[in-house]
Amino acid sequence: MTTVTSPSYADAVAKYEAVIGLETHVELGTRTKMFCGCTTEFGADPNTQVCPVCLGLPGALPVANEAAIEATIRIGLALNCRIAEWCRFARKNYFYPDMPKNFQTSQYDEPLCEDGWLDVDVDGETVRIEIERVHLEEDTGKSMHVGGATGRIQGATESLVDYNRAGIPLVEIVTKPVNGTGALAPEVARAYVTELREVIRSLGVSDVRMEQGSLRCDVNTSLNLPGQEWGTRTETKNVNSLRSVERAVRSEIIRQSGLLDAGERIVQETRHFHEDTGQTTPGRSKETATDYRYFPEPDLTPMSPDPEWVSRLREALPELPRDRRRRLQEAWGLSSLDMAAVLNAGAVDLIEATVAAGAKPEGARKWWMGELSRRANEAEMELGALGISPAQVAELQGLVDAGTLNDKLARQVIDGVLAGEGDPKAVADARGLAIVSDTGALTAAVDAAIAANPDVADKVRSGVHAAAGVLIGAVMKETRGQADAKTVRELILSRLS
Amino acid sequence: MIIHKTAAELAEAIAAGELTAEAVTRAFLDRIEAVDGRVHAFLHVDAEGALATARQVDADRAAGRALGPLAGVPVAVKDIVVTKGLPTTAASKILEGWIPPYDATIVARLKAAGMPILGKTNLDEFAMGSSTEYSAFGVTRNPWDLNRIPGGSGGGSAAAVAARMAPLAIGTDTGGSIRQPGAVTGTVGGKPTYGGTSRYGLIAFSSSLDTPGPVARTMLDAALLHEVIAGHDPRDSTSIPQPVPPVSAAARQGAEGDLTGVRLGMVREFGGDGAEPAVLAAYQAGVEALVKLGAEIVEVSCPHFEYALPAYYLIAPSECSSNLARFDSVRYGLRVGDDGSRSLEEVMSATREAGFGPEVKRRIILGTYALSSGYVDEYYGQAQKVRTLITRDFEAAFAKVDALISPTTPFAAFEFGARTSDPYQMYLADLYTIPSNLSGGPAVSVPVGLADGLPAGLQVMAPTMRDDVAYRVGAALESTQEPRLADQVPDVADKEL
């Protein structure tokens, strides 16, 4: 056997072209399951959210969930797809214990939505990802393998199945092959899943949480030499975070290029991504492909969405995330880099709401991206869960703008708000936090500082204005920070001129 | 004597207070006790449950509460229809011991109508067969000749009614499983329009063909039972959301014996090749009786009917191969070989090997093949095209005539074992009944006389949702018989085996 060494990523992408494809499964957040009335809530005790239909008991029949069909159509519309005028569910037949009927009710050659696209931004460039299809199906149950060391089926002594998840509506979104992205392929993959997640979240049809499995992604990767036919692809599963999407593509590019360099061939197979090592290991081989024996689901009538209804859904789509980001970036006067930081901090909605509550964009961004982000990081919390509302931040900034608070006092007010003492104005009043604007009291404090520091006062008098800092500090200390530093400085200079 | 009364007579007597529902139910339970040892129509008798329902009806009547048209009239249910708390086996070892946790919609309707459920009747395993010889729990004997088959798959329901063990029974008809047993036991069998009766809780054999319907001694009784179980069911997506055709009114109209102005078509392609001469003679006598009632008989051509049998034996097995996949030992029913030394796949395989009988296996294998990649278009796809052509043949015929007539089955009850060695010889029993299953239209089998001492049936096929037409014609024919076959009692108890 030939020795296979792993080339560097740079060498790999210098030599080969990567073609990627993404299959994303999104669990819809409908109240009930796809074909029965069971609740879809996450986290219940195993097998407590089941009925004859989702357990596949003899005689039970499915009834399609209209809300799930609507959600799928809305996803298709947001992804610029053509909505089928007539289509059917199909049975995908294979045996697996977490599938109660040993067939999955899915769609085959007649998906609800076809031929769309999604633009994503990578490195300041727009990449258009073509969408092959968006279809609706049911989720399977969840197997747990116990008694082994790894939690996987190998070595386990017992397998347990939880059917709570069985029958939850699942939307599958499949891209066409994406090629020509060069070394950026891993980032494109990540950007696509990120953007897709944003789009679906904006539609309000799923909570799209990768860690809970409500958004799951399989990544197909193949390599070819420039000018040659596309290579054999592998399908990588267990990609459970956005970062993993990028890492999985990168690691698969490196692995495959090592094999190709050594003259080996790529095996068409499913591979399993490992979060800890960043590597993939082989799963089941697809070379002896399962014959799913698809045929139209005879228990369900065809779907024929009324074109008028579809156009109403199209008109009612919310502003899509990318459009919204562009609008806000312009309105807030941010660079792409600043906007990216806001996005990463999850602060877009908060800043927008703060601006809507009357704050200037710059002020709103300053609080959320600065002080409040810092505190959220310290507390290891989501920014939005910190305990201060956009309206309160707007009120706080209003007090600063009015000269009532300076930044230092404002931070104390935030302490009070987070401690549940009320809105900013109320906190400032209760804690007696306000800039001292009574000139009499200030003049007295200035005079006292001058008297206490004659040497410094002389320096200032002789024109060394920088020395005034010591006096300002003394005044601020005397007034417990409640004076406006600028006013104090002006007062000192006028006294000593 | 109670057991010789028709269901309509019993209902009237109970409503009038001449008989109690309890006395009626006891009479049939006693009859079961007396003769079912020889006939073996029942797989399970629920005396306690039936009597409880009967007493409730008596109490309701005493309290002056309104009673349904068949309140207190007992009914037997084919053991492929699930009954909450009562064993339901589909006559298969793979489901032995399973107690369903829910009621089929039609069972719920029987209960709501105050009809005591006497028990569950025998059938060919999963309704696959025409003789009830493929039951895993022993054959049912034809009350007219205990050495002969009672038809199938619903031989148990037909024999129970013929032998006066139940005034009414529920059957299911996928290719003739209500009508052919009706014909060979001298009872009435109605296959409603597909979608006219709910399939929810009917253990699926072939989802696009399965149709529950009534088994009775007279057309009026069948019509009354039809009206109890029919009507839209939101749990069955293929259920038709339209009013139930007025079948009991049609049966009463037909009983007046006037078919003036009614045009009946005889299908040229059902010329009788291969049919038994005595059966054809009985049928011809029936046709002459219809003419005497004023019906106009014309010949019509349905050129694609000759492909109905092969198309059926691709579609039904295809769907069955998928529907029966759920019987895998994981969630319910039989489990074989789970001794810790075998993999899940091996246990599934051993269970299905031990749990399914030969005819079921034959059809699963046939259907798996017909759906497999590379063959699906050629077999399943072609069969669906034939199905469309057959439906068009019916439409063209019904443009010229009100209903089509034919013998129900080419041959009268045959002796046990006569057709089990050659599946095709068994399949021929459904030659005339299958087209209505493929088109979805309604059809009834009505006793037409005796062929060499064995009952023969005449089939009336009507347009979709015009079940009333079939009942009217059937009831008219019934009115010409003196004495009615329905009133001739095969004396089961005196026959020697």
TrEMBL record, chain A:
Domain of life: Bacteria
Keyword Transferase included in the entry's annotation: yes
Pfam families referenced in this protein's UniProt entry, alphabetically: GatB_N, GatB_Yqey
Cited InterPro entries: Asn/Gln-tRNA_amidoTrfase_suB/E, Asn/Gln-tRNA_Trfase_suB/E_cat, Asn/Gln_amidotransferase, Asn/Gln_tRNA_amidoTrase-B-like, GatB, GatB_Yqey_C_2, Gln-tRNA_amidoTrfase_suB_CS, Gln_synth/guanido_kin_cat_dom
Key words of the record: ATP-binding, Ligase, Nucleotide-binding, Protein biosynthesis, Transferase
Record keyword Protein biosynthesis present: yes
EC number per UniProt: 6.3.5.-
Gene3D superfamilies, A to Z: 1.10.10.410
Asn/Gln amidotransferase domain boundaries: 349-496
GO MF term (any one): transferase activity
Catalysed reactions, as listed in the record: L-glutamyl-tRNA(Gln) + L-glutamine + ATP + H2O = L-glutaminyl-tRNA(Gln) + L-glutamate + ADP + phosphate + H(+); L-aspartyl-tRNA(Asn) + L-glutamine + ATP + H2O = L-asparaginyl-tRNA(Asn) + L-glutamate + ADP + phosphate + 2 H(+)
Any single GO BP term: glutaminyl-tRNAGln biosynthesis via transamidation
Family in the record: Belongs to the GatB/GatE family. GatB subfamily.
Subunit note: Heterotrimer of A, B and C subunits.
Record function comment: Allows the formation of correctly charged Asn-tRNA(Asn) or Gln-tRNA(Gln) through the transamidation of misacylated Asp-tRNA(Asn) or Glu-tRNA(Gln) in organisms which lack either or both of asparaginyl-tRNA or glutaminyl-tRNA synthetases. The reaction takes place in the presence of glutamine and ATP through an activated phospho-Asp-tRNA(Asn) or phospho-Glu-tRNA(Gln).
Protein name according to UniProt: Aspartyl/glutamyl-tRNA(Asn/Gln) amidotransferase subunit B
The encoding gene: gatB
TrEMBL record, chain B:
Keywords in alphabetical order: ATP-binding, Ligase, Nucleotide-binding, Protein biosynthesis, Transferase
MF-aspect GO terms: ATP binding; glutaminyl-tRNA synthase (glutamine-hydrolyzing) activity; transferase activity
Domain Amidase: 24-467
Enzyme Commission number, as recorded: 6.3.5.7
GO CC annotation, single: glutamyl-tRNA(Gln) amidotransferase complex
The UniProt record lists the keyword Nucleotide-binding: yes
Transmembrane segments: none
GO BP: any one term: translation
UniProt entry tagged with the keyword Protein biosynthesis: yes
Annotated catalytic residues: 78, 153, 177
Reactions listed under catalytic activity: L-glutamyl-tRNA(Gln) + L-glutamine + ATP + H2O = L-glutaminyl-tRNA(Gln) + L-glutamate + ADP + phosphate + H(+)
Segments of this protein annotated with the region Disordered: 234-253
Assembly notes: Heterotrimer of A, B and C subunits.
Record-stated family: Belongs to the amidase family. GatA subfamily.
Function noted in UniProt: Allows the formation of correctly charged Gln-tRNA(Gln) through the transamidation of misacylated Glu-tRNA(Gln) in organisms which lack glutaminyl-tRNA synthetase. The reaction takes place in the presence of glutamine and ATP through an activated gamma-phospho-Glu-tRNA(Gln).
Protein name as catalogued: Glutamyl-tRNA(Gln) amidotransferase subunit A
Organism whose genome encodes this protein: Stackebrandtia albiflava
Upper lineage: Bacteria, Bacillati, Actinomycetota, Actinomycetes, Glycomycetales
Gene name in the database record: gatA
